[in-house]
Protein: Putative motility protein
Amino acid sequence: MNISPMLSAINSGDGLKQAIGIQLLSKSSDMQAGLTGTMLQDFAQAQAKVTAASVTPHLGANLDIRV
Structure:
């Protein structure tokens, strides 16, 4: 393994900026994935509550027919 290019990149600061940028991108991506999962779970719970509230137990029990 050739270490001199790595050392020169670290000493120049460009490699450090790139490494920090990659780490920030990774952290941001992880956080975004976590928040998306939470948002989808909340949405599913809200939909279940709306569906449960709109169910009418007497639907179809009586027919109103006029001739």
Q: What stands out?
A: Helices lie at 4-12, 14-54. The CA atoms of residues 8 and 15 lie 9 Å apart. Residues 1-31 form one domain. The radius of gyration is 29 Å.
